[in-house]
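quick one, four chains, predict together pls
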Amino acid sequence: MTLKEGKERFIQSWGALGSSWGINRTMAQIHALLLIAPESLSAEEIMEELQISRGNANMNIRALIDWGLVYKELKPGERKEFFVAEKDMWEVVKNIIVQRKKRELEPMLRVLDEISSVDPESEEAREFIEIIREIKLFSNKADSTLDTLVKADSNWFVGTFMKMIK
Amino acid sequence: MTLKEGKERFIQSWGALGSSWGINRTMAQIHALLLIAPESLSAEEIMEELQISRGNANMNIRALIDWGLVYKELKPGERKEFFVAEKDMWEVVKNIIVQRKKRELEPMLRVLDEISSVDPESEEAREFIEIIREIKLFSNKADSTLDTLVKADSNWFVGTFMKMIK
DNA sequence: TTGTCGGTTCAGTACTTATTGAAACTTTGC
DNA sequence: GCAAAGTTTCAATAAGTACTGAACCGACAA
């Protein structure tokens, strides 16, 4: 396989993976492109490489920066902005966990709290409250597990974790 | 808050959560509805409750069964099929992990293997191969960690895990 | 002050994905 | 064998999301 083919295949697959992970296809492709780019790239180069419009590139690059998956790099003497990907996979996954936890798990926890206040007037209501209580318990556990996971460092994950859970 | 409001709010939120988790809104809503239903429900009842068409209900129920999140229940003497949700949250999460691993992580591992065969003819190609190697290493670790996690039982997660990683 | 270069925004449009509803199919009872 | 009750399929369509391209903004240099 040639380098060009390999790169294309990678960008393609990373894009597909991303789109089932709350990161849209183009966003993931830009990330893939930057991951395997030997140098930081400008918006123009990204547009060119992926055949996308300026607006699209701009929006997705900024979203990637929001997610903490890409950094802006200002080259001295250059007016253009350049972009580099976070290449440490553990950092990438950690950032995604942090973002999605904030966007999804935490709002859900709030909703679960709210609906716990349903009147336990009927047997059905009491059953409902009980099920919600179980879900809440589980979600809280997941929440704090993820917190701990995110605080842990890369080496810990790569090295120790595997042995601990064996 | 009344029981009715609480239920609606829960179905609503569970639907929203699902849609950022590769489980579409309706599928997640059906799951939510079944989670809090005191009894198993028929397709008709689900259609009625969520105001969706027969076809939609049928397709999403079957998808939920595929994911292992819902079971078919055949009541003796009844010709209709009834459905119940898997209510153990740890089972739910485990099934989602298994499915998504199979659909996303495993294909990605295959792609990474393929593109490792890029000719290391240039310096750039060698750098590419190296980055792919790192991603592959990480993905393999994630893959086996998830395997271990899925084999572990609920109690282990709820009880021991939290202490271990403290 | 004017022109150029890049970045940002956003209304309109293209593309993707989910949903409907009707027809086809299956199972069962008579 | 046929009607009734239920399930499945799928082409057409609706709803939702992403993308484009042009207008706008700000910084800078001439």
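Residues 43-44, 54-55, 58-59, 62, 79-81 of chain B lie near DNA strand D (CB under 10 Å from a C1').
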